[in-house]
Amino acid sequence: MRVEFRLSGSGGQGLLLAGIVLAEAAINEGKNAVQTQSYGPEARGGSSKAEVVISDSEIDYPKATEPDYLLALSNDAYKSYGVSMKKGIIIADESLNIDPPAKVPVVRLPILETASNKLGRAVVANMVALGVLGGISGVASPETLKEAVRNRVPKGTEELNTEALEQGLLLAKQAKDQLGLI
To answer: Is the pTM of this model over 0.70?
Structure first.
């Protein structure tokens, strides 16, 4: 089993942290995981990408070559990575203006809106997105994801970030309904 994730958006959205948490959760469940990242020269607002590869066996190449899951939280991220998807599932924020590629299912969810309006903090959109990815893929249990979140987020924000993860897990159930995976 080898599962590849690409988390893409704008710098400052916290997707690099989300990738680290996803990899840690997989490792805590006895899987092998590697996380890589790249971002533009701008600290905030430039494009950013985190990739996570999870496997039951040794990982011979640390990059996602054909992602099974693409998360896009900005139009630029979708334009950079979504159009080249040939397999897998694209998970995009519902606010994006996208033209999905043929043969690849696209699930549009209110990730950014959930963080901003339901939780009152746009900064936790990364944990909402993590809940969506974890819930759809099943690469780690919700309990293990919550533990990894508590280990990695800044002290004093554990409760808010865990709630964001739980909201993402709820969105994942909606997505699985849309995809016919339940």
So the answer is: yes
